[in-house]
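User: I'm putting together notes for a lab meeting next week and I want to include a structural view of one of the chains we've been expressing. I don't have a solved structure, so I'd like a prediction I can at least talk through. The sequence is below, exactly as it appears in our construct file.
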Amino acid sequence: MTTIRQRRVGKGTEAAEDQPSEETNVGHFPDGKIPSDHTGGKLWNILSITVGGIVAISLGLVTSVYVATLHENDLWFSNIKEVEREISFRTECGLYYSYYKQMIQAASIQQGLHGLVYDNKTESVRTINILERMNVYQEVFLSILYRILPIQQYLEPVYFYIYTLFGLQAVYVIALYVTSWLLSGTWLSGLLAACWYITNRVDTTRVEFTIPLRENWALPFFAVQIAAITYLLRTHLHPVQERLTLMVVFIATFLFSLTWQFNQFMMLIQALVLFILDCLDMLPTAKVIWLYIIQISGLLLVCVLQFFNSMILGSLLISFNASVLIARTIQKNLKKGGLLNRLGKLIVHVLLVLCLTLLINKCIKKILHLESDEHIFKFLKAKFGFGATRDFDANLYLCEEAFGLLPLNTFSRLSDTLLFYIYVFVLFLMAVAAVIVAFRNLSGSNQVQFMEKMEECTITLKPDAAYSLGHTVLFGCLALSTMRMKYLWTSHMCVFASFGLCSTEVWKLLLKCVHLYSSQRAQVIKYSVPVITLVYISYKFWPGIMDELSELREFYDPDTVELMNWIKSNTPKTAVFAGSMQLLAGVKLCTGRTLTNHPHYEDKNLRERTKQIYQIYAKRPPEDVHGILRSFGTDYVILEDSICYERRHSRGCRLRDLLDVANGHIMDGVGDNDPDLKPSLYPRFCEEIKKNLPSYTMHFTRVFQNKTFHVYKLAKHK
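Assistant: Thanks for the context. Below is the predicted structure for the 718-residue chain, given as structure tokens.
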């Protein structure tokens, strides 16, 4: 088991036509003010953009260096052996990095690509196309770049890889900074967003200890896309500006889709935001349609690069966006009429889009015989209470903390930096404004007199702010339901809270409603409150950050290191290994041996294979287990005490419990069992094999053992 320990002393150191009429253009003045003197205004504008840009780049670089330093201090990465570095890339991270290593070590780029397209080492007795199955084009691109650049003598491949990802953190922070700046009109907002991102690092990123994870590649591009959409939704853009912005949105969307297998689900939520706001007449329809098209085209381009991956073609995103475009063609007068008339049309429109989405998606999946993503829908069905399930794959997700509800202590951590309090304050004001604006938009001319009564508290909501509100609400719901997805929400939370705190419109609305509004007072509050917040954050968290950077630890996992070294020294290079998904990813990276299964779970055949391999932890007779393992060409099986005698999960969520229930057996230990479950006729395989009984030794011979792992060689019976 991998642990981190304190370092020992003595070692060396090392489009306007669709816009609501109440919008105003503040885009040309970053601080939201129009100077009286035109020349002076231009100079102030240039100076503000220059200073803001320098601050953005500086904060991005600081964040990059910060997470890189934390990574080095945590593992003493520069001092540990190569095998220890590779083991530190845990679970699926190790699998992805292994393809980068494979490309680097290939005799040529062409041979490396051929090895990925015709891979027979990731899944034994099968040849699969890695470029089709997994999102590893980033590893391919990076390995080619490393080979052609003259840096091999100065930089090891692993450092080129991790520094690239830490560098992407700079892009991430700059994109968040720019988004907040565009929304509020002042770069002070961007500064506050970046500071919140850094001080809430535990809840905004995990890049320093899960470097190759797909989301660490994808989220910076997603942030760039959101920044570009924010700019696109501004009023009075020149046609050239609009076309260039659409190009940036497309490139960012494409890169986001290319680097993460869950891209379709994230963009589906984004499409729902656009759909809801467009229905409420809060976004320009022409631009929304362009964004739908960009999402579809970006995903289809990725589909082509992934050799027409059927999971992409069968995604709900493509079905939903196509349905919206078809429904808009059918219902051309959607935004005309009075309140009741429009509400009726909207209900019909929503039902039409929903039915078309389900119909198109079902037809595509039936034509393509697509079942790759069925485990996700089984998981969602069970998670939200639509019936209990004994499905092994669904329960495997349900029992993982990362796929559970967002823990309450997250909010206490976010509150320490004042982020959560300010976020809720801004969210409440913006939500109230959105409800009023939506009602006004849907009411049309019939409700003018009603709205005139509210003239004293005139409320407007610009399209970019409306999109940001919708984005944070829907991704907030996703984060609350699934902890692993919180990083999509918390980073935007920093943007949204800082924008609200630095927004003239927000303070104007609040002051007008309490009859205290004046232009000067609004400007004073707009700048003073963020500055006070920044001072508070700096005073409270700077010492803690310095202590964190001074804390030195090192990687320590001798059992796994011993296992990997033994495999490399004592087994043939063609040997096939079976075991847990997480461990086998490390086996492939560290030893290059062939695997029976691995952590990339988006394939039905692999899921069925994994369930069969995991019978080593179930109550099955030795001859059955031997037959299953040999059917996948297994030469060696690795048993882990941490799984066989697991205590991390409670009863019912231990891997052995999931297998028992799936096999119809009662679970171990004190507790309730479903009435139809029965005792197994056989003991648990992973426990009984250690007794060296004749019925086991005729099939399995122990060849390696330490405190954590037991390796058995399989007899090859004819």
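A couple of points you could mention at the meeting. Residues 9-36, 445-457 have pLDDT under 50 and may be disordered. The chain is about 65% helix and 5% strand.

User: Perfect, that's what I needed.
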